[in-house]
């Protein structure tokens, strides 16, 4: 018996200087990606950098790519001029000094955004993704996505792509993405031809580019959504910006015509992220405690070194005995934890403290439930059995900052022990609230009451966004600082 795949939809909310994309399964928020004009992610961007320092003891080098902090390049991520390596560090590595030298120019790609105080992580093994394939200009062979499970289809795709690569003009390898399942040879050939032309253009640009400059930038978020997030289960894509809707349709008509019919322009007065309570779910994802339907709850604490998760029964007493109560609570918590890891984009080392279970069979079933719930997560993860201390240890690949780090900052009222929304986030909340009020009520002007830091930001870095909102609603907006307001408090008064 096969489980019916969950029906998915994607909501894209566009406001001045911020774009948010949410993936929902059966109306439940699973993933959210936020991109701000002042702080776009760097992953997949290609730079022409300069080696600023070589560290033999760490087998690594620091690369200046023009950012505030120098980026980090490990020896395992450096191409050695042949197709034998793949950047996974499995082979014996030569001394880093044989691979790079100080002052050398190097073409690198970002594989991890700067996180906290750490600079970006780089590789010279460039990868160029499209809808069906990922081109590996420095690699060889053909890899197949693990999510394509049917062996006959895996073999067909491998054979098709190998033949296309052999007939191409440029060397390299490729990875077949999940979306390629069932597609024709012509579609694969067109995809690969596009990627090879793109790589040739990048090489040409890099030759003439100045050092410490951006050579190739990844697509904006609405277009990346079409390339990376859309699977066969996605039934609808809603975007509340007419301009971005037109750009997305133009992109799909050129490259992904099968997706054009499922893209729609959201025109209703109700904000798009109010659908299915998406806005509320994002706010809940910033809280420590998550309530379970059974009455239990889960506590999530994110620290610099790791994320710890604690499961408690709370008010759930069950109907049979204590062991059954604990088992049912842990089963529900396993599904909730998998969703929260994906929604909050938590990565690195994760320790889960399930409630102690006496029955070995119960422990095994809880781990199976967690593994099954994690199977739809696009981020690579590794799960271990329950340890002698009753803990489950796991890792989840971390590439971008967590949702908490994107939306929040250390709270100056509690010496960093908690979090509050940034002034920047409050500005965007204000923009959305003004648009919400404009769609529902008639008024002559708007008075915004907020913390001084928020007012200063609205008058400085976000002044352009404020002007755009005024033009959009056709009304003037006045700002008034309130000394008694906390940073995340504000009021929008219609006048």
Give a description of the structure.
This protein is α+β, with helices and mostly antiparallel strands. The chain is 31% helix and 28% strand. The protein has helices at 96-99, 151-166, 185-208, 221-229, 242-255, 278-284, 322-344, 360-374, 403-407, 423-440, 452-459, 463-473; strands spanning 8-15, 18-25, 28-36, 46-55, 60-64, 71-74, 105-112, 121-123, 128-129, 133-136, 142-144, 173-176, 213-216, 234-239, 263-265, 289-291, 297-302, 306-312, 348-353, 381-386, 392-396, 408-410, 419-421, 445-450, 476-481, 490-494. The strands form 6 sheets. Strands 4, 5, 6, 7, 8 and 13 form a 6-stranded antiparallel beta sheet that branches. A 6-stranded mixed beta sheet has the order 16-17-18-19-21-20, covered by helices on one side. It has a 5-stranded mixed beta sheet with strand order 3-2-1-14-15, sandwiched between helices. The longest helix has 24 residues, at 185-208. It is globular. The termini are far apart.
Question: Quick recap of the structure?
Answer:
The protein has 495 residues and is an alpha+beta fold. Helix content is 31%, strand content 28%.
> What structural class do the secondary elements suggest?
alpha+beta
Strand content: 25-35%
Largest sheet: 6 strands, antiparallel
Low-confidence stretches: 82-89
How many alpha or pi helices? Answer: 12
Look at the structure and give the mean pLDDT. 89
Distance between termini?
A: 61 Å
Morphology call: globular
Helix content: 25-40%
């Amino acid at each position: 018996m096969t489980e019916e795949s969950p029906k998915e939809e994607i909501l894209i909310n566009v406001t001045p200087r911020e774009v948010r994309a949410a993936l929902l399964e059966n109306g439940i928020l699973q993933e959210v990606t936020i991109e701000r004009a002042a702080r776009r992610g760097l992953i997949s961007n290609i730079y022409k950098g300069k080696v600023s320092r070589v560290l033999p003891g760490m087998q690594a080098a620091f690369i200046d790519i023009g950012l505030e902090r120098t980026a980090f390049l490990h020896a395992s991520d450096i191409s050695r001029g042949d197709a034998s390596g793949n950047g996974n560090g499995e082979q014996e590595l030569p001394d880093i000094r044989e691979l790079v030298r100080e002052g050398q120019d190097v073409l690198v790609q970002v594989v991890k955004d700067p996180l906290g105080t750490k600079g970006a992580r780089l590789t010279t093994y460039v990868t160029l993704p499209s809808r069906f394939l990922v081109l590996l200009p420095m690699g060889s062979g053909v890899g197949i996505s693990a999510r394509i499970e049917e062996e006959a289809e895996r073999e067909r795709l491998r054979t098709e792509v190998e033949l296309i690569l052999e007939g191409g003009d440029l060397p390299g390898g490729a990875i077949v993405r999940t979306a390629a399942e069932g597609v024709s040879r012509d579609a694969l050939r067109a995809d690969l031809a596009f990627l090879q032309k793109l790589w040739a253009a990048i090489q040409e640009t890099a030759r003439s580019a100045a050092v410490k400059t951006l050579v190739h930038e990844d697509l904006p978020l609405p277009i990346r959504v079409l390339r990376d997030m859309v699977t066969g289960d996605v039934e609808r894509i809603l975007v509340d910006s007419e301009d971005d809707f037109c750009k997305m349709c133009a992109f799909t008509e050129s490259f992904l015509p099968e997706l054009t019919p499922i893209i729609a322009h959201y025109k209703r007065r109700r904000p798009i992220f109010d659908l299915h309570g998406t806005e509320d779910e994002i706010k809940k994802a910033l809280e420590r405690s998550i309530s379970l339907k059974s009455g239990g709850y889960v506590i999530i604490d994110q620290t610099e070194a790791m994320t710890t998760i604690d499961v408690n029964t709370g008010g759930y007493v069950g109907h049979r005995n204590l062991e059954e109560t604990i088992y049912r609570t842990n089963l529900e918590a396993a599904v909730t934890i998998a969703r929260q890891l994906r929604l909050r984009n938590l990565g690195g080392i994760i320790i889960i403290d399930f409630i102690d279970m006496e029955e070995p069979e119960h422990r095994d079933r809880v781990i199976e439930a967690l593994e099954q719930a994690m199977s739809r997560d696009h981020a690579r993860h590794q799960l271990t059995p329950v340890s002698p201390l009753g803990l489950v240890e796991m890792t989840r690949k971390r590439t971008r900052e967590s949702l908490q780090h994107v939306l929040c900052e250390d709270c100056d009222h509690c010496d960093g022990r908690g979090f509050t929304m940034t002034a920047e986030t409050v500005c965007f909340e204000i923009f959305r609230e003004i648009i919400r009020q404009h769609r529902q009520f008639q008024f002559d002007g708007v008075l915004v009451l907020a913390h001084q830091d928020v007012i200063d930001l609205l008058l400085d870095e976000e002044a352009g966004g404020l002007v755009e909102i005024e033009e959009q609603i056709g009304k003037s907006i006045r700002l008034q600082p309130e000394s008694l307001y906390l940073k995340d408090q504000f009021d929008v008064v219609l006048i």
